[in-house]
């Protein structure tokens, strides 16, 4: 048994860790175990989707082999433990890129599918699952299922975004996208309130592939921020930035994110960033993965860990709902450091439990202050519920079942595809088993 | 003839060796021979490397690890198609110490695969490299070979054999064009240590270990401790007097 934490560091319960290294042995390791398990990649989800306290974890990072890359069609086949980072580094010099990538590239392909992750270009290219052509799923009864958008599409829809509960994903085929190089033409535009944000989002969607924004949810009740947008660009060969890695060396006893530091940070960040407004040519790594060079940044929240609260609410009520959430946060005094606000495109996700839906998504980090933090979440939940929104499973560690059921109307359909030999902290908390 | 570097890996399915291969091919395409005992497992490694480096030449050899004649023939066959720049001898197997104590057959197997087998391979390559006065032989030993400890002394003895052997080979080739590199990894996150990882042991990442090995081989260092801190740790362990050493449970 070994203590395992997820990215939020809220718990460090013991787990039976079973390492999967050899695809030909996966079946014998996951089948008919005495206790249910769940696949675990890089542990970058924040809550308990990738945890199974006192139970089995099948660690997939050893399944890290490429199988095929067709340079003329951009089809990549690889094992499910391959990191997005390794794909990007392999394929970008060869004129291809992952069409969709989340805010960190230190995640496995299997994890990206199971959480159906999205990036800054959702309005153009949807989520990760939209680009999977085929995947291999091993069930704990020994059945091996090959599925994709055109083959056993029901299994595919259950598995994409299915948070690992339909079987262990061991292999995937990804359709990459053409790209001329590692550079993006980017622009950073300051905004002073939500009206401006929504206007910018609206204006940017047609001409910009990537859009995202950082929002200051503290100063003067929150609402100012920076809108970042970017398009891939061909600027020929340039030297890539040296990625200097910094590591957070210790877990401080208390969170370094507190009332004072938050105010200072938000003020400093705002004013520093202001210097960088305008157009620039930016390398994909700092643009897509701004925090990846700050290794183990999750430790700054101290030994009690932190929560991430990410919701999406429909556009029609989006502005009011976001305004209301900002107000609650400002009132709580617990504001968030890395608040991200972004609009999703008007498209339906592939997965039955996929998170993205048309609307606006707000992601917030909060240090774990126990009861006080939970009280704030209850008030935020009420806003999300009224707005008919939902909360992202990959980030969640605490939402009430009733909000989960209301937010994910395809849940009943999904349950038919669950693997009875698989269970996670999240599945027990929200689905009863 | 092409001017690609020619590398040979004995025990090519080893995670440490495989990560070295990834780094080599990332630098530049090479002519790589992968040797192992199981065709399917070597194939998986070869396929991955081929995707990473389509311009590389990758050959697969399924071979015998203990029979001297077979080893000789395999190595002769490999060198026939050209001089070898680097041979990395990486195979090994970490047993439960208790099994070695209970069962002499298991004990013998551990000594053979970790000690005798790498030496036979190295010796076969040494014979060829001596003729051309060119090449690097890199052997993977272990920090476990530095001092016998109750937790793994049979494995440690085999690794100690490799250490002594590498020393002698370095002596033999001193001042010639043949280089001998002895690599001593500390506990590293690979399939070999999966059972330790499950118990929560702290392990170095295989990527960083491979990185230091590749750099060390390139620099022609005679002995590489990876991660580097193990040089200091093992120096202390080697010098602990027996009355202290015998009281600690390592
Ligand atoms: N990992 C560590 O903590 C650590 C520490 C110090 C030293 N080392 C040494 O580093 C080297 C590489 O180990 P690793 O960590 O990369 O482990 P690994 O991934 O488990 O690789 C072990 C390799 O040895 C081969 N092998 C095992 N038994 C064999 C046998 N009876 N006949 C032929 N081949 C056999 C395996 O082949 P198959 O794939 O066919 O099984 C595989 O190629 C070994 O010499 C090991 O002793 C490792």
3D structure, described in words:
The complex is a heterodimer of chains A (433) and B (250). Chain A is built from 13 helices and 21 strands. Helix content of chain A is 27%, strand content 25%. With 250 residues, chain B is of the alpha/beta class. Chain B has one domain: Rossmann fold, CATH 3.40.50.720. Chain B is built from ten helices and seven strands. A seven-stranded parallel beta sheet of chain B has the order 3-2-1-4-5-6-7, sandwiched between helices. In chain B, helix 3 runs parallel beside helix 5 (104-132) and helix 5 packs parallel to helix 6 (153-173). The mean pLDDT of chain B is 96. Classes of the chains: A alpha+beta (433), B alpha/beta (250). At the A-B interface, strand 2 and strand 5 of A face helix 2 and helix 7 of B. Bound molecules: NADP nicotinamide-adenine-dinucleotide phosphate (NAP).
Question: How do the strands and helices of this protein lay out in sequence?
Answer:
The complex is a heterodimer of chains A (433) and B (250).
Chain A: E1 2-4, E2 13-19, H1 23-30, E3 37-40, E4 56-59, E5 66-70, E6 75-79, H2 84-91, E7 96-97, H3 109-114, H4 122-125, E8 132-138, E9 144-147, H5 153-159, E10 168-175, E11 177-178, E12 183-191, H6 194-204, E13 210-216, E14 224-232, E15 246-247, H7 259-275, E16 278-283, H8 284-288, E17 294-295, E18 306-313, H9 315-332, E19 340-344, E20 359-367, H10 371-386, E21 390-391, H11 401-407, H12 411-415, H13 425-431
Parallel strand pairs in A: 2-4, 3-4, 15-17
Antiparallel strand pairs in A: 1-2, 5-6, 6-10, 7-11, 8-9, 8-10, 12-14, 12-16, 13-14, 13-19, 18-20, 18-21, 19-20
Chain B: E1 5-10, H1 15-27, E2 30-36, H2 39-52, E3 57-62, H3 68-80, E4 86-89, H4 97-102, H5 104-132, E5 135-140, H6 153-173, E6 178-185, H7 194-198, H8 206-219, E7 223-226, H9 229-239, H10 242-245
Parallel strand pairs in B: 1-2, 1-4, 2-3, 4-5, 5-6, 6-7
Helix pairs in contact in B: 1-8, 3-5, 5-6
The complex binds NADP nicotinamide-adenine-dinucleotide phosphate (NAP).
Residues 11, 13-16, 36-38, 41, 65, 90-93, 113, 140, 142, 185, 187-188, 190-193 of chain B line the site of NADP nicotinamide-adenine-dinucleotide phosphate.
């Amino acid at each position: 048994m070994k203590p395992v934490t997820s990215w939020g560091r809220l718990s460090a319960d013991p787990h039976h860790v079973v390492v999967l290294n050899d695809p030909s042995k996966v079946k014998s390791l996951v089948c008919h175990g005495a206790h249910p398990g769940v696949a675990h990649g890089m542990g970058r989800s924040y809550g308990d989707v990738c945890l199974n306290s006192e139970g089995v974890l099948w660690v997939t990072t050893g399944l890290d082999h490429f199988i095929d890359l067709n340079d003329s069609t951009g089809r990549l086949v690889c094992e499910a433990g391959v990191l997005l980072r390794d794909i990007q580094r392999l394929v970008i010099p060869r004129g291809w890129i992952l069409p969709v990538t989340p805010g960190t590239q230190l995640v496995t392909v299997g994890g990206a599918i199971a959480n159906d992750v999205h990036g800054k270009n959702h309005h153009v290219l949807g989520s990760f699952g939209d680009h999977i052509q085929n995947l291999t799923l091993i069930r704990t009864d020994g059945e091996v299922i090959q599925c994709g958008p055109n083959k056993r599409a029901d299994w595919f829809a259950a598995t994409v975004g299915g948070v690992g509960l339909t079987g262990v994903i061991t292999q995937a085929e990804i359709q990459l996208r053409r790209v001329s190089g590692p550079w993006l033409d980017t622009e950073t535009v300051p905004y002073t309130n939500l009206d401006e944000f929504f206007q910018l989002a609206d204006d940017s969607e047609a001409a910009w592939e990537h859009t995202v924004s950082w929002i200051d949810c503290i100063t003067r009740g929150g609402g100012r921020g920076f809108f970042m947008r970017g398009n891939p660009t061909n600027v020929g060969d340039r030297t890539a930035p040296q990625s200097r890695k910094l590591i957070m060396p210790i877990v401080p006893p208390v969170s370094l994110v507190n009332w004072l530091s938050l105010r200072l940070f938000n003020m400093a960040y705002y004013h520093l960033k202001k210097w960088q407004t305008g157009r620039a040519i930016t390398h994909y790594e700092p643009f897509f993965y701004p925090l990846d060079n700050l290794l183990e940044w999750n430790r700054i929240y101290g030994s009690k860990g932190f929560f991430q609260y990410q919701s999406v609410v429909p556009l029609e009520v989006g502005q009011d709902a976001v305004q209301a959430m900002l107000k609650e946060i400002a009132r709580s005094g617990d504001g968030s450091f890395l608040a991200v606000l972004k609009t999703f495109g008007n498209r339906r996700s592939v997965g039955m439990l996929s998170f993205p839906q048309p609307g606006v998504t707000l992601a917030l980090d909060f240090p774990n202050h126990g009861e006080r933090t939970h009280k704030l979440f209850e008030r935020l939940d009420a806003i999300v519920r009224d707005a008919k929104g939902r909360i992202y499973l990959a980030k969640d560690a605490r939402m009430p079942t009733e909000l989960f059921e209301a937010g994910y109307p395809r849940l009943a359909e999904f349950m038919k595809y669950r693997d009875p030999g698989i269970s996670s902290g999240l599945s027990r908390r929200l689905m009863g088993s | 003839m092409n001017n690609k570097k020619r590398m040979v890996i004995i025990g090519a399915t080893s995670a440490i060796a495989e990560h070295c291969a990834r780094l080599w091919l990332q630098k530049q395409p090479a002519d790589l021979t992968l040797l192992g005992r199981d065709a399917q497992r070597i194939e998986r490694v070869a396929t991955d490397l081929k995707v990473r480096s389509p311009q590389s030449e990758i050959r697969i050899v399924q071979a015998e690890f203990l029979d001297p004649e077979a080893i000789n023939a395999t190595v002769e066959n490999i060198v026939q198609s050209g001089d070898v720049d680097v041979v990395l001898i990486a195979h090994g197997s970490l047993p439960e110490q208790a099994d070695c104590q209970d069962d002499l057959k298991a004990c013998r197997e551990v000594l053979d695969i970790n000690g005798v087998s790498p030496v036979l391979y190295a010796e076969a390559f040494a014979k060829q490299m001596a003729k051309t006065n060119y090449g690097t032989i890199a052997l993977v030993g272990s920090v476990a070979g530095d001092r016998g400890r109750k937790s793994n002394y049979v494995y440690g003895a085999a690794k100690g054999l490799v250490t002594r052997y590498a020393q002698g080979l370095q002596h033999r080739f001193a001042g010639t064009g043949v280089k001998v590199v002895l690599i001593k990894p500390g506990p590293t996150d690979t399939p070999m240590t999966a059972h330790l990882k499950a118990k929560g042991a702290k392990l170095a990442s295989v990527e960083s270990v491979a990185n230091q090995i590749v750099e060390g081989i390139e620099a022609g260092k005679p002995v590489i401790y990876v991660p580097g801190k193990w040089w200091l740790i093992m120096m202390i362990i080697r010098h602990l007097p027996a009355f202290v050493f015998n009281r600690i449970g390592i």
